[in-house]
Amino acid sequence: MKGKIKEGDINYVRERNNLVDVVSEYVLLKKKGKLFWGLCPFHQEKTPSFKVDPVAQLYHCFGCGEGGNVFTFVMKADHLDFPEAVESLANRIGYRLEYEAGSTPELSKKDRIYEANRLAALFYQHILLKTNEGERGRYYLKKRGLDADIVKEYGIGLAPQAWNSLGNYLVKRGYSKEEVFDAGLVVKGAKGYYDRFRGRLVFPITDIRGRVIAFGGRVLDGGQPKYLNSPETPIYHKSSTLYGLHTAKNEIIREGFIVIVEGYTDVLMLSQAGIKNVVATLGTAFTAEHVELLKRFTDRVILVFDADAAGTKAAENASAYLSEFRLPKMEALRDLERRSGTSGIDVRVVVLPQNLDPADYVGTQGAGAFRGLINTAEPFFDFYLTRELDKYNIIETQQKEQAALAGLKFIAILDPLAHEEYLSKIAQKLGLDEKVLAVKFNAMFKKSAPIRGEAKKAALDPQEKVERALLHLMMKYPEIRSNVPVEIEEGCFVSPAHSRFFTVLKEMGAGKFDTKALDDLDKNLRTKATELFLTEPEYEEENLSKYFEDILISLKDFHYKRQISKLRQELESLSSQKDIARYDELFEKLIELEAKRRDLR
Ligand SMILES: [Zn+2]
Description:
This protein is of the alpha+beta class. The chain is 52% helix and 12% strand. It has 26 helices and 17 strands. Helix 21 crosses helix 25. The longest helix is centred in the last third of the chain and has 30 residues, at 544-573. The protein is globular. Zinc ion is lined by residues 40, 42-43, 50, 61, 63-64, 66.
């Protein structure tokens, strides 16, 4: 383990890495007034809503809501944790970090796991290409029709049959058995550690930068299991990794779309046939995390399913999308649904003819035929709907009704904009009247709660607007922060996030609110802070104190009004005869509050 990075170093790295310069390495920024604007690197957009404040060194995207400082930017853009982001930015300025007293070996635990995996890949390749034992593997690959070039390009290797070859090799190279275990390369058994992969072809799985992070292993004979993968490790998360992405990256950008298959050999065969924009999922459904990863390269995704598995795969994928996107990523789901639009991710499905996998298909029919098949790909949601409806025998009236119900449930989760289109599709497919179906749909689902993000955007509550204005001022002007009267307290805010942020700001004292202040905030408050900070002010500097006064008055007014209506409600529920004492007490309070309210103006 590396020690903790020294506080002073963190600040030094922060000061020396200008946010505008760092962001400019990812997207083009243009100066507009006091701020820099650009297209957001974290979501797809056509007009810039990503803003950087060069003085405060903060950024915020008014499209997707991301915001923060130079550290959070690098963390998000490069998928790093905080210490890694500090290290990466230190490297950027050629600065060597110092760690707090304690252990400071050269490599962190993660670095050692990367290195162990890299060595393992070289070891396996050597066995495959240079040894007698490798002959079996070479023979198998040749029989499958894979050339030496493609084998080298993807770094394929062979794990020896013996129990401890790789383990021993890495121990000789200075790794402890525990480290090799943490890297996922050996398994712990009753008699100690032994190699995870034995007598298998191994396919190195790399991250987007090309570093080996895991392996997939395939048997050469009839052994079981046919496929074996590395477990999740500190550097390998299978739901956010795609096999072959590093190799395919440039071709994906060039071709403008990506082909997603299931097997390693499918990737290799297609790539060898000249279809190089191809990757494989690693035994999981195609998930929202994959979308996040791919969004940086393309907005067109073609999923290739085998005929046998197509139905289940579609259902798996759909539920993966939906559970992942449902609430926080509603926008992303919308993106998926606007599949024919220009802004979203266009996900399509191709089903291969019976009994063929992509490798067989391209092997027997050729690349041209495969490309032709890709051109017939069907939009994912259409495909899914068809599979859903096909489950029913619609000749029977009862089954037809159930099919309609299933279809309507499916529509309900889609963007309202897509409802009409899909209602008409269901009606056509089932031979029902579209209008009748629409009436039924509206009766069943139209009154359901609005989607969260939508409701929030629809109308900014007048009180929330005032709360935002006050928090904005408190961030920008330390003198205002110390001038907020004591009557304004947490309870005056209706938004819990605003209330929380108010406390944070009050406790900040007279310090400047800047990039450093963000380090202590959770993501929720951090993006709230950058958003408020970079929102165009509604006041002129010279009218600042008047504006501040007005805000205080409105906020108090809202607060009193809320208390008054609460009191009124309680009074109404009381009987003036039975609860005389309580009634009088509340009534007095009410008079007092109303007087306070009048005094405000
Ligand atoms: Zn954005």
